[in-house]
Amino acid sequence: MQKNARPRPPGRRLAALLALITLAVTIAPSAARNVATDDMDISIKPGDDFYRYANGGWLKTNTIPAGQSSYDTRAILAENTSQRVRELIQNAASTHAFKGSIAQKIGDYYLSFLDQNSIDAKGFLPLADEMTRIAAINDTKSLSAYLGTTLNTEVDGLTANADHVFGIWINQGFEDFDHNLPHLWQGGLGLPERDAYLDSSPKMVDLRNQYKVHIGAVLKLAGFVDPEVQAARVLSLEVEIAQAFAPDSDAADVTKQNNPWKRTEFSAKAPGLDWDAYFQSAGLAQQRDFIVWQPSAVVGVSALVHAESVDAWRDYLRFHLLEHYANVLPRAVAAEHFGFYRTILSGTKQMPERSTEAVAATNGALGQAVGQLYVQHYFPPRAKARAQAMAKDLITAYRGRISNLSWMTPQTKQKALAKLAALQVIVGYPDVWIDYSSLDIAPGDAIGNMRRAEAFNRSRNLARLKQPVSPIDWPINPQVPGAVIMFSPNAEFFSAAILQPPYFDSEGDSASNYGSAGAAMAHEITHSFDELGNIYDAQGRLQDWWTAEDRARYRKASEKLVEQFSRYCPFSDLCVNGRQVLSENIADMAGLLVAHDAYVLSLKGKSDVFIGGLSGEERFFLAFAKRWRKLQTETALRQQLKNDTHSPGEYRSDTVRNIDGWYDVYKAEPGEKLYLKPEDRARIW
Ligand SMILES: [Zn+2]
Q1: Please, which residues have CB less than 5 A from ligand 1, an ion?
Q2: What are the distances in angstroms from CA 507 to CA 20, 428, 500?
Q3: Fewer Cβ close by (within 10 Å): the C or N end of the chain?
Q4: How far, in Å, from the CA of 516 to the mean position of ligand 1?
């Protein structure tokens, strides 16, 4: 357990009990909030078009918001959540909470970020100490020591390019599941990916030129006298760094990233950088073992530290320092940053309001502090208890499914069951929150707040190297609607914000919750056992636990689903590519089956009530179909068909046609469009 754990408020148990009693009174079946029928189209036969039967009313009465390419339940959820988070942060800012409280830290972080006038008045002075340190770099040793201070934890497992020349992520090893280890990542490029530096097409040459202009503009704003010359040096150094980067395609192959290096091996394997000086100032002098994700980048950058001129490195570090803090520097720098990154690179024309940026920055720096407020307001203990109960039913259901699989060999089933038994499905929010009491957030000090928050996160993460692997650090904030599958360690996280209507209603109908959020959770759990997760064992170690026979039989069983989806053609010239979306379709199907088993389990032999004239079974499948409702432009749909590994929502909703239980409930018959003969239904899980 972490030190400095915040004690639970003593009233919590009582509050949970009260919530339970209140719920028993208020959930008159006819009033369940998550069973709406006016968004359906009951003139359509479910067996002909279950998606429009469930969503016809909604599809007719909604439109895609101006400037966007799609609109769906996910967008509604994201919109509601971001509005709530904004209100929580702004309320904290207006309450004048006592110094040291979470509300004070959130409020002052927000307000200081918002106060562009005082940021402008300070100019570049808040970075003067750091600029002096950079100016003092005069040899390999001092350069190495400085680079060590930039090693930070701004790596989230999906980034191929950390914010500094190396990024660090603290997690268990690929083989050693007993210890947290530092995973070293390539980083330090200003453009988003390696190919942007190496591609010689006119488009990329042009982009590099625009980037060079941007570098010069930032340095000029900060008062440097020779910005064009400096910008050229910075770009050419970054091209050299990019040449050492692992190819982008390597990111998909985790076996290439499992490179254990001893601390003592760095100097021989990657000569150039003064590794003693580097690790000393990075706070890792005592660390014995590392995992190097992209050895070529470590070797290449290390050589450049010695070979490239100190002048070029100083310019590079100055520019990246300014860029890193662009949003809390004078507004001309923030505007220049926006102009390149958001307009040139991403096509966004209008700079968002400062308050929107301030909310995002606060949420980023004080994620679990905002998360605590979010949970207090929107995710009561009752919600967590219901989500946990559902997760438990899903695991029980999975155990049954795995035991009865026809394609998995007996010895593989044993491994799958062991992995399932070890899998941690974690919902809502952390049991122990990050303790922010040692982090000082001061009014009127935007840049200081950002730097202190970064230092706080860095030392907190490095401290985890000396702590047990469990409890696992939450990889997602509770107020971010989403789920994270870890594989290593063997754990899956579902945030409080994804467990809210329309996916999950802690005060609403259980059948609908299992059909919607339950099926979504079971989908994610499936990935731990399918061709994504079969290379990680029960402890999260890299180890392929399927046999060739499992693989062959699994693929044979999947063929029906490939053919079924390839027959869906939204345009005369463009159909679904059944193979491209196969893995996700299998997870959808497994998720629906498992969620249905879990729903039945949850009834404990009793029959469910009717709500609005609908049986529990009807509501279960209806909720599944409703989750996929989506409006999108033709361009967006075509784009999805070509590139996405997920099928369009309509066809994901049609997964029901493979499920026998759906036929029992909705009585689809031969001749109806979705009807499949029992022998034509896909059966994998
Ligand atoms: Zn998936």
Answers
A1: 584, 587
A2: 10, 15, 10
A3: N
A4: 14
